[in-house]
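Input sequence (537 aa), recorded before submission:
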Amino acid sequence: MLVQSPFPEPPSLTDANAYNVLLNRPDQREWKDYTLHIDAVTGRKRSFYEFRERVQDAAAALGGPVTEGCLGLSAEEDEMVGIISENSSDYVVLVQSLLYLATPFALISSYSTPFELAHALKLAKVTTVFVQARLFPLVLSQAKEAGLSRKKIFILGGRIRGRKSFSDMISHVKVNIPVYENKVFVMGKAEVRVSPPIDTPEGIPITLAFLPMHHSYGLHAYCFRSFIVPHTYIIFPKWNLAAAMKAIPKYHITNLTLVPSVVHQIANHPKLNKRDLKSVKHVGCGAAYLPKELADKLLTTLPPDVELTEGYGMSEATIAALTLPTSGSLGGRLKRIKGCSGVLLPGVEARLLRDDGTEADFDEVGELYIKSHNVSPGYWNNEKATREAFDNGWLRTGDKFTIDRDGYFFFADRAKDTLKVSGSQVAPVEIENVLLAHPEGLISDATVAGVSGGRTSDEKVPRAWVVLSPAGKKKGTAEVIKALESWHQESLSKYKWLRGGIEIVREIPKSPTGKTLRRILVDKYEKRIHKRMKSKL
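Predicted structure, token format:
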């Protein structure tokens, strides 16, 4: 059963530089200047025209000749720029300047441990890094392991003595490089009209920007989509509930881009005052499934006319494939259904397949496959993963849905082993590898799977089952668990920690072909927990 989007086909793809599509459109020449970014910590403002001029100066600094004090980056060279930082206005500037130059870049989590950072740098084959000052020692410590030249590590935000920063590069260009030099890039700097920053005019949406920009949700929301219409963003380095709740009334926030774990925190805030949220007009939630009960609880805290827009997507699908339509979409033909993940976005096709590969019927659970121009052709430098996830243009999402006869999709479950914790993906195999890599060799086998215990009823948390090695048996059960707890917490980001615990078993159940049967272990655990809870009632 092939399902198509109810929306009209989107325009043909353009071959224009992404910078021109986002920041050099004809309609933007008619825009009056406005405040684009406000730093939530310092209060510093940056207007749209200030921002655009800084992007072009940055592009000149990054792409200009080395002989003139620039970096000499280009689309032709075998470059990969890594960005490791918390959110900031200059993070967006750097992203846009690299798009301007058509130079590829890799966004690396600012929460990375040394182990994760070295792996990411090597996987992406990063040649140049821009890193937040406080994270500089971490990058420096892993440079040799990742094959990264220390001379190609630069600072994005903050200062490190003896180390050139992104701001230094831009200042050098403004002083030393003539305006006409920018014409070698996508557009001439002389075309930009620069005005002093002004206060945000009434009517412009104001968004609380706290999602990590290294995450595809934050990247699209704050670095790409932010230039469709005039819009102001209050940029937080990272999520802070107390600061966010103060910022909403202070800046008269109109738009919130949330993930389910943040929805849970706001909806259950002990000191929540509905008057503090009276400016909010629109709420969007993504990155993981939002249970209907939690969505309803959040809506009770908001003005009665606020709509909560949900969606479904993946980084592999350029963030989105499904969206819950707003009221009145397509002349009122589309409706909002609570608990629904939405309908297909323009240009997206879908199929639902049973476990045996046959087509699922309406209202029957099946794994979602999607096809569209916005679907990635595969994973870079990973043919095995590409073959497993992509089939003749179809992307296997690893998530199970049902679809009704009107084309509305309803989330059912995750088919893949990958977990979603607080909106971030957690790969069990990564945790397994860390446990098995313990320097004392305490275990001979391990498997990780999701079990109940998350912030929402459907969210799973990682739990490990391990088999003791001779060294582990000698050390003793309690000491092994203590050692593995400490080891994996040192090696992995907090959201990957084994919040579901560690259990020692005699063996890991496997199929005749050697595939780990995680479901057997999970079912035993869940039944045990259910029985324990029932006995307490």
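Checked by second reader. Confidence is low (pLDDT under 50) at residues 179-202.
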